Amino acid sequence: MAQKNIKNQINMNYLIIGLGNFGVALATRLTQMGHDVTGVDADMRIVEEYKSQITTTMCVNIIDQVSIKALPLDDTDVVIVSLGNHIGESIVIVSLLKQAGVKHIVARAVNPMHRTILETIGVDEVIEPEKTIADIWSYSSEAEKIKGVYLIDHEHQIIECQIPDILKGQNLTEANIEETFEVKLIALKRRRSKFNFLGSRELEYEVVNTTDEPDYRFSANDRIVIYGSIRNLDRFKKQL
What we know:
By secondary structure, the chain is of the alpha/beta class. It has helices spanning 21-32, 44-49, 65-68, 87-99, 112-121, 129-141, 172-175, 177-181, 230-237; strands spanning 13-17, 36-41, 56-59, 78-81, 105-108, 125-127, 146-151, 156-162, 184-195, 201-207, 223-229. α4 (87-99) packs parallel to α5 (112-121).
């Protein structure tokens, strides 16, 4: 049984079916975050290999309602079906979970048809990790000044980027970012240097409290975090 590295204020119980690359990565990360995670796979070798990284692991070949009953569904907040290559198996398992009355099911889709079938069955949330990573990388590669992208849905994003040259030296009122670009400013971050325990100088970013510093003026190394529609964010990114 894996040890939790971080104690979460809200502890969730996850059951992840399918310990492939994605399933293992998700299960180990959720375990590290302090959640209770049960990882399930039909291959005992995989179950044994990752039992020290996941809260609990189980070897169950889910093929019918009898095998479903072996899972701790009553103690689970969210069931995640992370199977990728076996689309038919994924659909069967989701159907069995629905029949068993599982309240919240998240399932991985590997193509549009798979997504459509899962949504038709009634999955609460469909995730496409490969597509999400491709989208994030492509958006980040558009401009070197974009430092992070978080996809909210197919139409909205949060991005972190360096201050455009046209805004340097302006304060928030003068820049008028929200009205000009129709986006929401979430945070303003400035770069500062500090000494680590070895005595070496390091650079890090800290959030500027604009309530305490309402007249703060943007400098060349500042970053902003903004939310908006992809269309409006694309318009903003043209200034980078």
